[in-house]
Amino acid sequence: MFLTTTQFPSPHPKTISFSTTFSPLPVTKRTHFRPSKKNPCLRSVFQAPRCSISVAEIAPKEDLLTKPSPAEVSRTIMELSSVGTLSTLAQDGWPLGIGVRFVVDEEGTPILCLNASNQQFSVDDRCSLHVQLEQCGTRTPQCTLQGNLNKAEDGLTLKRLRALWAKKFGVEADEDLLYPVAVQQVLQMDDYTEDGIWVTSSDYVNASPDPLRNCAENLVNEMNSKHLEDVHRFCNIYVDSGFKVEDAKMIWVDRFGFDVHLFSQNGVYEARIPFPREVTDERGAKSSFNCMSQLAWEVDKSYTAPEFEKVKDLKVIRCS
């Protein structure tokens, strides 16, 4: 567990500790959230906790990203998913979609294992594969890959595809039923009602899935279930909403930051809150949450001036 909070009588700040112990690293310089000076109340044994953050190389401020690209989102969706809808034109000329299982290789190429009855249902090799990923029960990012469905013939390739399938599903696949999809372009959408963005095949192949993908869901669930007070404080301190936030919920987290839903009398809004630094693993994300929670607490208690740029961009999810 992380973000464990102990309240001391004012004016002492809250302290945050990890349940998992490790040697602290030096404090890294913040890029977004910069207190103007040390808290005058932080003295003696009540020192601000050191924050260790696993970081990637930081781009200049003008080039600093705050969210993954559509190509990266698509790669992440494909890595975390294992089922989708394969659509093509059937022999009678009608479009037909069927549910399929798939695995992806290191370049994001989907490999399908078709059964004998649906191997020949298409009039040609053109197809699309639609895949979606539910996030926290409130958002469903999705991508549709358009490409060509071809039978793998090379022996070494088939051996590699069979190994990928066995690793993903724990069972051997019949190599005669394995079909890779050569991706030509990708349509990525953040949710059902969102506009889609087209991604080229080269951008898709060259992109990498998010490094937090395998721990993101657990991080979000833990924040919402055990540290909801911190989630509320994030929304009140780091977001310039202009309205009273009655409730808040974290939706997803990636290496650049996290998405939250803000609930008010007027409706539901989505905001993107960036991390102080890009993180590369679960440990870095937890450390960033701790640092941001400590700073938000100090600002909330008027121990530190909010000398950082607040998030102003809000997306309307639902109006009351």
Topology:
Blueprint: E1 4-6, E2 15-17, H1 70-80, E3 83-89, E4 95-104, E5 110-113, E6 126-132, E7 142-149, H2 155-169, E8 178-189, E9 197-200, H3 201-206, H4 216-226, H5 228-238, E10 247-254, E11 257-264, E12 267-274, H6 282-300, E13 314-319
Antiparallel strand pairs: 1-2, 3-4, 3-6, 4-5, 5-8, 6-7, 7-8, 8-9, 10-11, 11-12, 12-13
Features:
28% strand; 320 residues; 23% helix; alpha+beta; single chain; elongated; 6 helices; 13 strands; 6-stranded antiparallel barrel; 4-stranded antiparallel beta sheet
The largest sheet is: 6 strands, antiparallel, barrel
The sequence of SSEs as H and E is EEHEEEEEHEEHHHEEEHE
Strand content: 25-35%
Structural class designation:
alpha+beta
User: What is the terminal separation in angstroms?
Assistant: 36 Å
Mean pLDDT, to the nearest integer, reads 84
Count of DSSP strands: 13
Q: If you had to describe this structure to a student in words, what would you say it looks like?
A:
With 320 residues, the protein is α+β, with helices and mostly antiparallel strands. It is 23% helix and 28% strand. It has helices at residues 70-80, 155-169, 201-206, 216-226, 228-238, 282-300; strands at 4-6, 15-17, 83-89, 95-104, 110-113, 126-132, 142-149, 178-189, 197-200, 247-254, 257-264, 267-274, 314-319. A hairpin with a 2-residue loop joins β10 and β11. The longest helix has 19 residues, at 282-300. The radius of gyration is 23 Å and the shape is elongated. It starts with a strand and ends with a strand. Residues 1-13 and 15-63 have low confidence and may be disordered.
